[in-house]
């Protein structure tokens, strides 16, 4: 019976360690999102939700910036996606309809070794804060690579949703279908 208790104790100990401990390596992008949402909550603004297409765009843009040094890169103000040189490639790869990005904003920052508190401060204590302080932004995408982090903010309007072209086409076809049904109904009468 003593051997049964002895073999059960290590089993229980190992499981307790795995279930009660938090992982040592956290996802920096999720931590940044959580920090930004805490910042917005402190201002009585709604939290930002992850937008899949904006997330893709942020990741692609961070990948493009990874070879630039922090010293050489001076990006003084946020950009709209359409003003960037690689916009067509990013929009195509992320399946984003270009008409759904005009109200969004892209905010790249460069912080050596991506120190989490400094990255968050670069968004909440700089000229980028005015965008985080606006309630019109409802969605977010975050991407990081090497020393670069890119945040893309989206709206819930058609011009800022970062929706895919397929969704926009189905919306147009759906509206056409409803119009045809109503047209047929009134024509038959």
The number of helices is 7
CATH top level assignment: Alpha Beta
End-to-end gap: 88 Å
Kindly provide the radius of gyration, computed on alpha-carbon positions and rounded to a whole number of angstroms: 23 Å
Derived structural class: alpha+beta
Overall pLDDT level: 76
Shape call: globular
What is the name of the CATH superfamily?
CAP
Low-confidence stretches: 11-26, 166-189
Written description of the protein model:
The protein is of the alpha+beta class. The chain has one domain (27-188): Pathogenesis-related Protein p14a (3-Layer(aba) Sandwich). It contains seven helices and four strands, in the order ααβααβααββα. It has a four-stranded mixed sheet with strand order 1-3-4-2, with helices on both faces. Helix 2 (28-42) runs parallel beside helix 5 (116-124). The longest helix is centred in the last third of the chain and has 24 residues, at 165-188.
Summarize the entry for a quick read.
The chain is α+β, with helices and mostly antiparallel strands and 189 residues long.
Write the layout of secondary structure elements.
Layout (H helix, E strand, L loop, with lengths): L1 H19 L7 H15 L6 E2 L1 H14 L21 H7 L11 E6 L5 H9 L4 H4 L4 E9 L2 E8 L9 H24 L1
Parallel strand pairs: 1-3
Antiparallel strand pairs: 2-4, 3-4
